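PROTEIN SPECIFICATION:
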Amino acid sequence: MPLFDALTRHLKRPDLFSGIDRLPSLGTVGTAKRFAVFNPSTGEKLAELPDMGVAETAAAIDRAYAAQETWAALTARERSDTLWRWHQLIVTHTEDLAAILTAEMGKPLAEARSEVSHAAAYLQWYAEEANRIYGETISAPSTDRRMMVIKQPVGVVGTITPWNFPASMVARKISPALAAGCTVILKPAEQTPLVAGAMFALAEQAGFPEGVVNLVYASEGDAIGRELCGNLKVRKISFTGSTEVGRLLMRQCADQVKKVSLELGGNAPFIVFDDADVDAAVDGAIQAKFRNAGQTCVSANRLYVQAGVHDEFARKFAERVRGLTVGDGFAPDVAIGPLIDDRALGKIEAHIEDAVAKGGAVRCGGRRIGNGGTFFEPTVLTGVTGGMRIAQEETFGPLAPIIRFEDPEQVVREANDTIYGLAAYFYASNLRRVWRVAEALEYGMVGINTGRMSSEAAPFGGMKQSGIGREGSRHGLEDYLEMKYICMGGI
């Protein structure tokens, strides 16, 4: 297809996209307007897609609504089998999906493969969980009654996914909804819609009935979001993105008291206490800060290091960061790819400028790389204080600020002094400290002596203004189910 010529050069199976823009169940027909998708490493145009709006979104909602009753009426095993087939197709096409992801988002190919595997793991998990939706019986207060609770699907679900993990976020949102018996409409991020399109093409091959999975491509999300939130046929919204947009969607859902799941911004602290294994802490900080070029919602944003190990940690950490290779995600041995766009570059530069003006020092990095692409040197700042922008705002890039601290209790208070509460990390060996700090941190997820903690088996989500609800684990399935109490008298 000419539409995908630039992209299919990277694929072992160029037919992966065959017919993708002609599948009615994916909602990609009905508009002549197009928008382009570009490779952030090279600026090359990869593809052109239908640029859809309110009419196409409403049509996709209608298809999902028409399919809802039939999909919900299937047995759990039938829904599970379809999810399993989709999982197996994702696994089979891992290399091509990873190549698409790297081309449109820029992350190193090894990271892209890992993300596709993570996406497949969610499909596998919820294929299994579909068979474990249980109700309960309740002891009645009289002998002529029977009381029970059953669980039923919420209904049509509108989902909006971000650009930074465009494969795993699709699977993490859609698979529990489908397992529960809901039909879905997905609006992927305009920067990275291609891997979602490929995954939906595989979903078609897996045998999902007409209208169960629906894809809406669009270069602008505002009108799509308003239609998803305002349409009475949509019973739930699931969104991952900024807190600002999450607030807006929540307001738009309020008039209908529509259910929402929101996974929003973060400002993750990474605390190294003086009883920590410093080398292990450095390894964990590299993972937590620089995976996906720091463009993750759970990325370590503030590195607090206790005075007794501060200098050793800063030295070893900066040495490791200097050795990280930046470049095109398809190049061998690249650890960090490009940022998603020029605006992301500008934010990093603004944070560095503010920190240096207020007494911070650039330990390594600090500059853009080259004249093409959106590459930035992985950067370490020392001498950072709480009054700097970088200590208060989420950077979303390869910039690591180190803040020296003395008082273990005060650092927990500072770590909690934010509207966000998504993820936190700390390194320590004293067991009493481990328990007390883990319980005191006001975050939905806490990593202890590890820089990575995401798993399909664990609940992912935050406190405060970092979101509502959980994704992954059995708890993620509950967010797509309604609880119904049934009381039968005259028995």
Remarks:
- Residues 2-264+466-486 form a domain with the Aldehyde Dehydrogenase; Chain A, domain 1 fold (CATH 3.40.605.10).
- The chain has a mean pLDDT of 94.
- The longest helix spans residues 109-129.
- DSSP finds 16 helices and 22 strands in the chain.
